[in-house]
């Protein structure tokens, strides 16, 4: 028995659930197939940064588009998913890092991203809790953070209300095209068919692409995260550093979420196992203390990670397939797709239904490795 | 062969004794300053009490265990005051914290004897100062020589209820009520099975008899209503008796507890599968009678592998050590292994009767009012978890425990659900209308308990 629809989506992260919502809103019969629960991997267990500052310039048009959706989140999903515009403060710890911050000001200006330098004279006056290692920062007032545990499932709920079918615990094991329709087979033997297939399967998007003859050099990526007990609120902005080896933010409840480095994972034989690494956790805590010395003595209560897909050039694959008409990719967000997710769903919907989108996608084409070779 | 034993309670001591007898020198890690486990936790040197006063009927057993513990220390890599906060089964490494210093211990085989903690059901008012768990009330008495209050009520079920009430009364506290949520009829039905327990059962009867003989108010089949109090602490306890009549007692402290739950976080992180034990009403790591697990080189013994009590833990520790040695290719005393197996099997039957005589009151948890604090770390109320079972919940319906945690923060605080987890599962399952074993369990995440952020050495920071 085959279930047919207009659009099949593989992968229920933030991007996939947003695509399901946008497709359904435009009257498409959509079925989203998710191997676990929606938002179980990269979209659900990430740091929660909703950040435009510091992105690869190619990503900024998508980030701008997504930012507009984040600002409308209550209207979109009926709750704010704890999205809060706190500003993002990116810190430099030496002259070279400071020079990088200054260089990015031009990039930000070109893309209409508000960004201002916090120089050596004001950084410790404005943020007296920063440690002496910090020499300067750049502040993006529109950026912020949200609760990653809520985004995908909130999008999925309203996608369902809009008519999309979200099938969780449905692991796709067979990918085929019969010349007219995509034919997907789930682990339990259920079959699905549609003329359009959106590959939004994160790390596993690599396997979907490979099934249609366009393998890409993707690797699993497991960002290492930890959270502290609640302490009195004092860190207002979301904090990052040049180079990205540590980042942290405090939620109004008081807990401080700290990320940095990578955990371990096992994706062999269909597994999706990932764990933070203790030595990485300890190292990033040390880096965090260098930024905010008063973290010493605060208790870490939990650490975690998930599985994202990392591309060699650290930007995702987004756009139509080079081998199979009707197949569209958006995967491999390389550890920074949370902010992009809502926008990517909207962009993919335009790409499929309108045949074009205003956002330039050329840098993300799947053929870029073949072009280079 | 590098062997590590985590825990120096009854299971850990007997495991180490067996390993040392076979010529090994295991790394032996324990969170407490001087071992003994929770049940035979040693007082600080300054507390001058003899074993009989501290451990009562268990004095002989406690002394014997402590003697072995002390004899084993020089024959092992003894690491007291050492908290194992993560385990990596793939590379076989323990991550430890000792007085603020991080270290690792690599092993070829590890025996986890991680013990148990109190299992509680929230009661309106349970976050008031003066309310503590039964086990903690007992530890205060054993290791500090002080009680949780001067007019104390005990509420719960199981052997610890009677034992701790007895110990408090003997120590001079005014025990104003002992309230058992299990009905007399339930206990009577289990009585035949309890006879298997011999001395253990007899001790239980003795405590109850002693409390009755000393005129202490006892009520069975009760339904807790609320612990009353002001900001400064507890002032009273309200309940309904078996006939539904409102009852109340004045008190300044309440000890609560409904049996124990395994401290099985390391087993979980080691990748050992868990199953829901319907008799114990606990998720327990899967192991065979000898303590072997499906993860090569990883063994379990004692209450951390499923609640059995201290005597069983001693047997299980010795047995798991034999299994470990046997798997490593050593010749072991087959007769001794068979004797331990028989004793463990017999003890298992008594445990079933004991659990039936004091079942976890799932209905009390499921029926808690919406405004009762459930997750005390996060300050969440019962209704906030219940809401996540509804289709119209903003993030969608939470079909299982970890998703409910993700949505509501239940079990996300300092204790990581060790305190509220059992009750939270009952509340969510009831709200979803499914059996409690259908919604899974809170997954373990390192660290198994909080670890402090420390200042890195100055040169380590770029």
Automatic annotation (TrEMBL), chain A:
<protein>
    <submittedName>
        <fullName>Sarcosine oxidase subunit beta</fullName>
    </submittedName>
</protein>
<dbReference type="GO" id="GO:0016491">
    <property type="term" value="F:oxidoreductase activity"/>
</dbReference>
<dbReference type="Pfam" id="PF01266">
    <property type="entry name" value="DAO"/>
</dbReference>
<dbReference type="GO" id="GO:0005737">
    <property type="term" value="C:cytoplasm"/>
</dbReference>
<feature type="domain" description="FAD dependent oxidoreductase">
    <location>
        <begin position="6"/>
        <end position="351"/>
    </location>
</feature>
<keyword id="KW-0560">Oxidoreductase</keyword>
<dbReference type="InterPro" id="IPR006076">
    <property type="entry name" value="FAD-dep_OxRdtase"/>
</dbReference>
<dbReference type="InterPro" id="IPR036188">
    <property type="entry name" value="FAD/NAD-bd_sf"/>
</dbReference>
From TrEMBL, chain B:
<dbReference type="InterPro" id="IPR036188">
    <property type="entry name" value="FAD/NAD-bd_sf"/>
</dbReference>
<dbReference type="Pfam" id="PF04324">
    <property type="entry name" value="Fer2_BFD"/>
</dbReference>
<protein>
    <submittedName>
        <fullName>NADPH-dependent 2,4-dienoyl-CoA reductase/sulfur reductase-like enzyme</fullName>
    </submittedName>
</protein>
<dbReference type="InterPro" id="IPR041854">
    <property type="entry name" value="BFD-like_2Fe2S-bd_dom_sf"/>
</dbReference>
<dbReference type="InterPro" id="IPR017224">
    <property type="entry name" value="Opine_Oxase_asu/HCN_bsu"/>
</dbReference>
<dbReference type="GO" id="GO:0016491">
    <property type="term" value="F:oxidoreductase activity"/>
</dbReference>
<dbReference type="Pfam" id="PF07992">
    <property type="entry name" value="Pyr_redox_2"/>
</dbReference>
<keyword id="KW-0560">Oxidoreductase</keyword>
<dbReference type="InterPro" id="IPR023753">
    <property type="entry name" value="FAD/NAD-binding_dom"/>
</dbReference>
<dbReference type="InterPro" id="IPR051691">
    <property type="entry name" value="Metab_Enz_Cyan_OpOx_G3PDH"/>
</dbReference>
<feature type="domain" description="BFD-like [2Fe-2S]-binding">
    <location>
        <begin position="373"/>
        <end position="429"/>
    </location>
</feature>
<feature type="domain" description="FAD/NAD(P)-binding">
    <location>
        <begin position="1"/>
        <end position="313"/>
    </location>
</feature>
<dbReference type="InterPro" id="IPR007419">
    <property type="entry name" value="BFD-like_2Fe2S-bd_dom"/>
</dbReference>
């Amino acid at each position: 028995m085959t279930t047919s629809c207009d659009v099949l989506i593989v992968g229920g992260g933030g991007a996939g659930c947003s695509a399901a919502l946008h497709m359904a809103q435009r009257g498409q019969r959509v079925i989203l197939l998710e191997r676990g629960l929606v938002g179980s991997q990269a979209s659900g267990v990430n740091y929660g940064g909703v950040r435009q500052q510091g992105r690869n310039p190619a990503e900024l048009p998508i980030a701008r588009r997504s930012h507009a959706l984040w600002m409308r989140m209550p209207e979109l999903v009926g709750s704010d998913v704890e999205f809060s515009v706190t500003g993002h403060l990116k810190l430099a710890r030496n002259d070279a890092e400071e020079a990088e911050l200054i260089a990015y000001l031009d990039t930000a200006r070109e893309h209409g991203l508000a960004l201002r330098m916090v120089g050596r004279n004001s950084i410790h006056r404005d943020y007296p809790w920063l440690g002496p290692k910090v020499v300067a920062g750049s502040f993006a007032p529109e950026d912020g953070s949200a609760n990653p545990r809520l985004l995908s499932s909130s999008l999925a709920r309203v996608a369902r209300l809009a008519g999309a079918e979200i099938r969780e615990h449905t692991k796709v094991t067979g990918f085929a095209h019969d010349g007219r329709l995509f034919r997907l087979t789930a682990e339990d033997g259920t079959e699905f068919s549609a003329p359009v297939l959106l590959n939004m399967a994160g790390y596993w998007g690599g396997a979907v692409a490979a099934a249609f003859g366009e393998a890409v050099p993707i690797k699993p990526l497991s960002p290492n995260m930890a959270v502290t007990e609640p302490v009195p609120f004092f860190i207002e902005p979301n904090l990052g550093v040049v180079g990205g080896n540590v980042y942290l933010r405090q939620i109004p409840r008081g807990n401080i979420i700290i990320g940095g480095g990578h955990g371990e994972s096992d994706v062999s034989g269909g597994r999706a196992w990932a764990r933070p690494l203790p030595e990485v956790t300890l190292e990033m805590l040390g880096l965090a203390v260098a930024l905010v010395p008063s973290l010493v003595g605060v208790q870490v209560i939990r650490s975690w990670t998930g599985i994202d897909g990392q591309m060699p050039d650290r930007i995702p694959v987004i756009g139509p397939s080079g081998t199979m008409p009707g197949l569209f990719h958006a995967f491999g967000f390389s550890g920074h797709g949370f902010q992009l997710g809502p926008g990517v769903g909207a962009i993919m919907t335009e790409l499929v239904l309108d045949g074009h989108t205003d956002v330039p996608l050329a840098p993300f084409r799947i053929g870029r490795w073949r072009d280079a070779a | 062969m590098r062997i590590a034993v985590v825990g120096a309670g009854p299971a850990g001591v007997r495991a180490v004794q067996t390993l040392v007898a076979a010529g090994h020198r295991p790394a032996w890690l324990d969170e407490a300053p001087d071992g003994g486990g929770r049940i035979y936790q040693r007082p600080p040197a300054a507390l001058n009490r003899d074993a009989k006063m501290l451990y009562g009927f268990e004095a002989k057993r406690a002394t014997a265990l402590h003697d072995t513990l002390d004899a084993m220390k020089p024959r092992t890599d003894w690491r007291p005051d050492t908290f194992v906060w993560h385990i990596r089964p793939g590379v076989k490494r323990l991550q430890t914290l000792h007085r603020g210093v991080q270290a690792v211990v690599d092993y070829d085989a590890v025996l986890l004897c991680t013990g148990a903690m109190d299992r509680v059901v929230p009661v309106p008012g349970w976050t008031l100062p003066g309310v503590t768990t039964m086990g903690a009330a007992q530890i205060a008495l054993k290791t500090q020589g002080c009680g949780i209050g001067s007019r104390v009520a005990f509420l719960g079920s199981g052997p610890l209820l009677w034992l701790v009430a007895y110990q408090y009364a003997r120590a001079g506290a005014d025990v104003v009520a002992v309230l058992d949520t299990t009905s007399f009829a339930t206990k009577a039905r289990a009585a035949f099975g309890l006879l298997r327990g011999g001395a253990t059962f007899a001790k239980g009867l003795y405590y109850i008899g002693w409390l009755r003989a000393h005129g202490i108010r006892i009520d069975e089949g009760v339904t807790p209503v609320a612990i009353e109090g002001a900001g400064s602490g507890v002032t009273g306890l309200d309940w309904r008796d078996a006939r539904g009549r409102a009852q109340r007692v004045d008190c300044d402290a309440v000890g609560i507890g409904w049996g124990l739950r395994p401290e099985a976080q390391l087993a979980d992180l080691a990748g050992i599968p868990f199953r829901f034990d319907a008799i114990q009403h606990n998720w327990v790591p899967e192991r065979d009678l000898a303590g072997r697990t499906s993860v090569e080189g990883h063994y379990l013994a004692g209450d951390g592998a499923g609640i059995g009590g201290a005597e069983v833990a001693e047997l299980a520790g010795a047995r798991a050590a034999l299994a470990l040695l046997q798997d490593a290719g050593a010749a072991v005393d087959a007769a001794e292994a068979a004797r331990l197996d028989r004793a463990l099997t017999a003890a298992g039957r008594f445990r079933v009767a004991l659990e039936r005589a004091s079942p976890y009151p799932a209905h009390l948890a499921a029926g808690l009012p919406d405004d009762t604090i459930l997750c005390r770390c996060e300050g969440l109320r019962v209704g906030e978890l219940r809401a996540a079972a509804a289709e119209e919940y903003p993030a969608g319906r939470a079909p299982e425990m970890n998703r409910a945690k993700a949505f509501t923060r239940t079990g996300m605080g300092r204790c990581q659900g060790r305190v509220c987890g059992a009750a939270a599962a009952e509340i969510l399952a009831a709200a979803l209308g499914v059996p409690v074993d259908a919604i899974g369990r809170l997954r373990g995440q390192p660290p198994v308990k909080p670890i402090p952020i420390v200042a890195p050495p100055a040169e380590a920071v770029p």
